[in-house]
Each structure stands twice: as structure tokens, then as C-alpha cells.
Amino acid sequence: MKLEIREQKRPELSEAAKAEIARVIAQYPEGRQKSAILRVMHIVEEEAGGWLSPDTMDMIAEILNIQPIEVYEVATFYTMFNLQPVGKYVFEVCRTGPCMLVGSDNIIEYLEKKLNIKVGETTEDKMFTLKTAECLGACGYGPMLQCGEKYFEYLTTEKIDELIEACRRGEVKGNKVV
Amino acid sequence: MGRKLLLEHADVPGIETFDVYRKHGGYRSVEKALKTMSPDDVVEEVKKATLKGRGGAGFPAGMKWSFIAKPEGVPRYLLCNADESEPGTFKDRYLMEHIPHLLIEGMIVSSYALGANRAFIYIRGEYMFVLRIMEKAIAEAYEKGFLGKNILGSGFDLDLSIAPGGGAYICGEETALIESLEGKRGNPRMKPPFPAVQGLWQCPTVVNNVETLATVVPIINLTADEYTKIGTEQSKGTKLISASGNIVRGGVYEIELGISVEEFIYGDDYCRGIKDGKKLKALVPGGSSVPILPAHLITKTANGDTRMMSYESLSDGGFATGSMLGSGGFIVFDEDQCIVRNTWNFARFYAHESCGQCSPCREGTGWMEKVLNRIEHGKGTMRDIDLLADINKKSEGNTICPLGDAAGWPVAAAIRHFREEFEWHVTHPDEAVKRNYGMLKGSLAH
User: What ipTM describes this predicted complex?
Assistant: First the structure.
């Protein structure tokens, strides 16, 4: 865990994000605002370009009126949060049993070749990050990957080519560039 | 095609909206329960229906409800477990995506039964697109007076909201889910005290699976007497099955409990057989944690009886020759699949998902993954096969939550039924590596 990265300044939260944060905190009883932490982290991560730096996490602690360590310990437990910078598009390919039975290993291998990176890496142009994920709940429609909030299912090598082209044309919702 | 109680209207265009859902009989159970039944009547009805928890453990839901403590002046909470993460399981996603109001309806009736005025849905973070569908439906239900203050003039209040997780299988364990909903790491709690006494914010809490809560709706609408006419002696009603693996048509199917496994795999209404005309090799019938069954124990039990899709028939023979219905995550393997590779894959999953607070699980899952990795990649020894059984024995029952057990069961079952395949990997290391490579190339079917 590289908590020493402090190169990113705190993100500017949009008015919409601020309103959304206020709405979700209000869903919990007085004094239980910490319960909103995961939702707030998802919102702030999106505003911060897809990852949480220690500075950003400190900001979340201030929003929720809790200690920074309480955010760090949550951020390092849940696998969805990126604690290092990622590309504009993060491909998370499901690699668990049912997807493996229908060829997820081939999909991962194809993406590694196509993007010329290994799992866990980001392309030089900062466009794509390739990750693997454990079961994403699309077992009957595999192989599949998640990019942003969207699931791409019944993947083939042709469909991956199309997806990458669509990303390059800006037709797929990616991380904010901050 | 059997009777459908949950997904009957799932294909109706616009069913995700309040108006269309209402037009197809939606929210009738709320009217019936709040206007004509006491909370205890609802609990009794669910008990009488012998509804078993649909998340995987199969604990009777009515009984779970009856444990809830009712101290004066202390709020009670109902939590819906939508953290669906068991490999092979995607039924709750289907239900929420297609017919979100059914879950809301079930939660209103269930909260009324428990005397809970605050309920939360905890959904896995990766399902953010489903969370947005649910939030829209919740807002509609508020607007139409089915959530909020004094629902239908009954004097019953209920607030409902939905919270996302952040990517952690362990949060499907109910006390880990509660910890997570309190904004902490998802480490399961020691029990007792059980959530029914001290759950969310130390208040009495019930945690139920999505499908369990949705099933309360047909039970109230039909009455328990009618509901229990569907199914078998010990498995009443219908169940959502998530079908995946090497089958012609994967997806979510609602079945009447008690149809044969053979019909489910080969029937036109369901999976339509094994893909590419291949032979059936093995089956994991209830999510990755349950024992795998070899071909000769799938359509028939060890006694030669027809194997049925029911709690009792799938577990017939115990762990020696049976398995479990579990979450209904039905994973089918064709003849070309490597059991060792799949067992290693599942072991890697559990090692990744162990929360790490109990050493037998944290170390045991890691060791099992390493040993299986070794065997799969042609570097194992015969002793490794027994070592796996030994690790399993040492962690089983020695952890706070059942993840440690769940991690060991698929390994133990795979060795029990496919030992020669593990031994073959040890005696033919070069071929094992090559064969897997060939298998993977060939399996990219789409």
C-alpha cells in the first residue's frame, strides 16, 4: 500500500457531488454519518479521476467528521477503491470459476497483448488500466468485464476490439481527467 | 414450465416502474398485511410457509424473525443482504434489475412484521447500476405513499434506503455486512450476541437475502396453505436458480422446487443441455462453496433415486455423495474442463476474500491456494494431495465465520470425487501444463 503518494491535490467537488453526499449522509440517524463512508468514497473517487490519494482520503474524513485512519482502513479493505492513479478506462475482467469455464483466461491474455500491458498496469498514454476481479455476478453471461459502472458481457476478441475503439472515440463513460 | 411466483411479470415492458408493477398486482401484499393482519400474523404465516433463507444457508426465515429482541424504546432494523458475491450466483441482481418493486414490497411487509421503521438494502458495490434502478423505484414508492409516514393510513412508518459495498465477498456474512454498514472494515463479529439481539448500532436487527424478502410477497398474497402446495415435502415454493458454465442457455430461472436435475440441465425451458454437444462431467449445484458432484451422482443419487432440485434431494448422501442447494448457483462443467484448475481457481477466490482476522482461515486459504497452484502447474507431489485435506481439517470449525469452512468444502469434494485427476497432474507434470493450455484455447466458444 503506497500511502506516501501525496502528489494529487484535493479534488474540487462539483455541486452535484456535494448535493449527493449531503443526501446520502442524511439517510442515517444523527451521529451515524460514518455509515455513508463507502458511498461517499465512491462519489469522491469519481470526482478525483478514479482513485483515492491520501489527500483525498483526508478530505473524506473531514466531510464525515471522522479520523483519517478510519478512511484509510476502509480504503485498504475493499478492493474496488484504487489507491494509485489509474487510466481513463479501467477494465476489470472477471476471472472466477464460471467465467473461467467459458474462457476468461483467454480474454485476459488477449487484452494483455492488445494493450501491451500486464494485469495491474496502465498503458503509457494513461488511457487503459487492466485489472482482474473476483466474481462480478454475471456468471451466466460470461466472459465479462466491468468498465466504470457498466458490465460488458458475452465477450469475444471482436467485442473487445470494438470496446477499445469505442473508448478511444469517447463513446464509453470513463474516469474524469483531473 | 412450472409456476412462477417471483418472476411471473419480470418480462412485462415497464415492470420496473410503479404504475406497471401496480397494474400487475403489485403492492397487494402490503394492503393485505397492513389492513387485515397483525405483525405477529405475518410472522406466523411466514413460519407456516416454512420459507428457508434463499441466500445459501437455508435457515428458516420465520424462525429468524421470531428471535428478534423487542426491548422497549429501542429501534429495530431490517437489512436486506444484496451483497450477492458467491461465485455462480447472480439471481438477486436479476430480480432487482428487472422487478425492483417486488423487493421493496417484500421489505415493507417484512419490516411491518418485525416492527422495524428503518430498513436498508446493502448491495455489492459493483452493482452500482442496479443500485440506481433500486433508488429510482424507492423514490417512486415514497411518492405513492408506500414508504414514509403512516403507510396507507395504517399508522406504520417505514424509511428505506440502499447502500453500496466496496468489493468484499465477506460482507455477505451478516455480521460483516452490519460492520460494513456501520462504515467499517467487513470483519465478521463473534456470536453470540446474534444480530437479532445486538445488530446494527447494537440494536436488534434481522438480515435477510433479497430473494427471501421477495418471497414474502407471494406467501402473503397466496396464504401459507396455498404456497406450501408448491414444492416437495421439505422444500416449499419456488427458487431462483442462476445457471452458468458450459450450457446452451445460461441465465436466471425460477423453478418449482422438486423438478429433476436432469430436466433443469436438458429441458427446453431451462439450460437446454451441454454446449457444443459435449458430455456432462461435473456440477456445482449451489454456488462455489458447495461440494462438486461427478457425472454419475448428478441425475441420480447414490441410492439410484432421481436427483431433484430441492434442499433434501441435492444434499442426499451428505457430503460423501451429495451436495447442497445453497444459493442456487448452478455451475455446469463439460467433459473438457479440468477439475484441478477449477479447484485452484476457487481456492484463489477464497484466499483473496478471507478477511484475515482468524489465522486458520487467513493462513489456510493461502496455503490451499499455493498447494493447488503447485499441483495445477505440474509441480505438485502426492503428499500435497493429502496435505490439502489436512489443512482443511485444521481450519474447519475454528474460525469466527463460515468462510474458512466454505473454502475447504469444494477442495475436499474435488479430491473425494476426482482424486485420479489430481494424481494424474502429479505424475504427468508436462502434459498437465500443456493440456490446460490446449483446453483454454479451445474453450473460447463465443
Answer: 0.95
